[in-house]
Design brief:
The complex is a heterodimer of chains A (319) and B (290). By secondary structure, chain A is mainly alpha-helical. Chain A contains 13 helices and four strands. Chain B has one domain: Orthogonal Bundle (ABC transporter involved in vitamin B12 uptake, BtuC). Chains A and B meet through helix 5, helix 11 and helix 13 of A and helix 4, helix 8 and helix 10 of B.
């Protein structure tokens, strides 16, 4: 991809738009933007596996939910823990779980992989649901959003929604940009190579298992971070964070947005959240419309919405 | 709480009933997977649609038996329509694309059911002739559940006869093993596939209809049945009908006794079992095919 000055200018404008967002729009829009950013990170983490490594995880909410639960448990039990450390622990929870679960999952592929990742997520869901003394079951754990302390800036109240938006913006962007750079490394190329033909990748000397596991672990890390951000945004963590509906959300977002473009999942997340907000104000049955859009995109627009904006229909990952 | 031998027997029959229902749903799923390589996520929606349609048809026509006849036909036609006009279009996108397509349909059906019938649980009265309990050796058991058992065994026998004794059955079994080769040998595999897809949908709907009087209907029932079916076909081995049968009975009994002994861990155990089978024997306990 060539970096034309025009493209750089567009990125600068987009960044400025994101930074100025809270002063341009009403608070309710800032809420929605925060949600979009969180889901965008979740969807990008999903797409590291789906779009770039060729694995379809049906249980990605497991890592998202672990991040959310880790953050909620720390906030409710350890007072005075810095928010950033809390979120880091949430991300690491997703990372460690992804290494453990991934080391058995990535040996499989196709529908088998989808099902085994689903079964681990259902297992984690069942633990969250039944272990009431720790997780409070399906009633969930609610807490008050703690304040953020930063050097130089001092105390920043996250009860102010604009501050929460900026926190989410910075961390989600860091996660998403981090994923982008991972894909630019030799590891990213190896992931694409494994997606295209894993046997050939192994003949070329790649350790296919290790490549898939690393992708899985990085994906779990980012999903855990997204989960932690989600917990802090919602101020409540319940089994809905870790159930199979939550696992299905990134599938919808990524397929709608376009798995073959790096920013497709971001576009899909924005589309999903905004459409949900817009349609659900008119009807409670918005999932029918989302499902119909999803089916139409699979049938007629395999590259997703992102392919409408790019010159080539299918933009392969890496280079 | 001390439990007599009677309660164990009752619990076992409960498990058998649920297992047989599960088998009616899972058999179509596993056959389609064997033939097309597509995990049809919309399959459990057919089960749900069967149950809900039974509610409406029984309500309008006043006859449970008519709905047992009509619902599977309607849903079977729907299945044929989906295979012919939607799945086949997604064929060029590969299996993952088809899997995602059925996933989208699963969503659409789930929400449509909520739109048409509402979110509250519904139930269908069991036919008068099958109401009441039966008393055997000091145990009481609802007649209707025994009917489910008998009916599903009949369907099972019919299915086995069809698959082993008839020409079409031989073609289906051959196509599960190697669809391309069967096509080369002169059978019209796409038509067979469409028929199997439709028949699988009809069977799932039939299971839905007979399940309607004994368990209430709710919009999430499709998702619940789907998860159980996944476990069943993983246990039994993708594409294996006998595997699906044994897997269904295992899950039926596991849930039935799990509720009795380890209510809090039954769900956990079920998914750990599925993960364990996928790790150590991805072809399932009874499957032979890679």
């Amino acid at each position: 991809m060539r970096h034309l000055p025009l493209r750089r200018l567009a990125w600068l404008l987009f960044a400025a738009f994101l930074v100025l967002f809270p002063s341009l729009f009403r608070e309710i829009r800032v809420h929605i933007a925060t949600e979009v950013l969180t889901y965008a990170l979740f969807a990008v983490s999903f797409n590291l596996l789906f779009g770039y490594t060729g694995l379809l995880p049906f249980g990605h909410a497991g890592f998202f939910g672990l991040g959310a639960y880790a953050a909620a448990l720390i906030i409710s039990h350890i007072h005075g823990m810095p928010v950033l450390v809390t979120l880091l622990v949430g991300a690491l929870a997703g990372f460690v779980a992804a290494i453990i679960i991934g080391s058995v999952c990535v040996r499989l592929s196709g529908a088998y992989f989808a099902l085994i990742s689903l079964s681990f997520q259902m297992f984690l869901f069942a633990v969250a649901y039944e272990w009431r003394s720790v997780t409070n079951g399906d009633d969930g754990m609610s807490f008050v959003r703690p304040d953020l302390y930063l050097p130089l800036l001092g105390k920043i109240s996250l009860q102010n929604f604009n501050n929460l938006y900026y926190l989410t913006l910075v961390l989600a962007s860091m996660g998403i940009i981090g994923c982008y750079f991972v894909l630019k490394t030799p590891l990213g190329n190896a992931m694409v190579c494994v997606r295209e033909k894993d046997v050939r990748a192994s003949f070329l000397g790649y350790n296919v298992f290790l490549v898939k596991l690393t992708a899985f672990a990085i994906s779990g890390l980012m999903a855990g971070l997204a989960g932690g951000l989600f917990a802090i945004y919602q101020e409540v963590v319940a089994t809905t964070c870790i159930d199979n509906n939550m696992s299905m959300i990134p599938v919808l977002m990524v397929v709608i947005g376009g798995p073959s473009h790096f920013l497709g999942p971001v576009l899909g997340a924005a589309f999903y959240v905004v459409l949900q907000d817009w349609i659900s104000s008119m009807t409670g049955y918005w999932m029918i419309i989302m499902g119909a859009i999803f089916v139409l995109i699979i049938l007629y627009l395999q590259g997703g919405l992102a392919s409408l904006f790019t010159s080539s229909r299918v933009w392969r990952g890496g280079e | 709480m001390g439990l007599g031998i009677e309660s164990y027997i009752v619990q076992m029959v409960h498990g058998l009933v649920y297992g047989m229902l599960l088998f009616l749903v899972a058999s179509g799923l596993t056959l389609v997977f064997g033939m097309m390589g597509v995990l049809n996520m919309a399959h459990a929606s057919f089960y749900m649609l069967g149950a809900y349609l039974a509610y409406t048809i029984t309500g309008h026509l006043g006859s449970f038996w008519l709905s047992l006849l009509i619902c599977p036909i309607l849903v079977g036609l729907l299945g044929i329509f989906i295979e012919r006009f939607l799945l086949r279009k997604a064929y060029k996108g590969g299996h993952i694309s088809q899997l995602l397509l059925t996933f989208g349909l699963f969503f659409i059906f789930g929400e449509s059911v909520r739109l048409v019938w509402g979110g509250a649980p519904l139930s269908v009265a069991s036919p008068v002739i099958l109401a009441g309990d039966i008393h055997v050796a000091g145990m009481t058991y609802p007649v209707y559940r025994l009917f489910i058992l008998a009916f599903s065994f009949l369907v099972l026998i019919g299915m086995v006869l069809l698959l082993t004794k008839t020409r079409i059955g031989i073609i289906i079994r051959a196509a599960v093993t190697d669809a391309d080769m069967v096509g080369v040998l002169g059978s019209n595999v796409p038509v067979v596939l469409m028929a199997v897809f439709g028949a699988g949908a009809a069977l799932a709907a039939m299971a839905g209809v007979i399940a309607a009087p004994f368990s209430s209907m709710y919009p999430g029932m499709g998702a619940d049945a789907l998860l159980d079916c996944f476990v069943v076909i993983v246990l039994g081995g993708f594409g294996s009908l006998y595997g699906a049968f044994l897997g269904s009975l295992m899950i039926g009994e596991l849930q039935s006794f799990g509720v009795l002994w380890i209510p809090r861990l039954a769900l956990v155990f079920q998914f750990l079992l599925m993960a364990a089978v996928l790790i150590w024997r991805p072809t399932g306990l009874f499957g032979e095919k890679e």
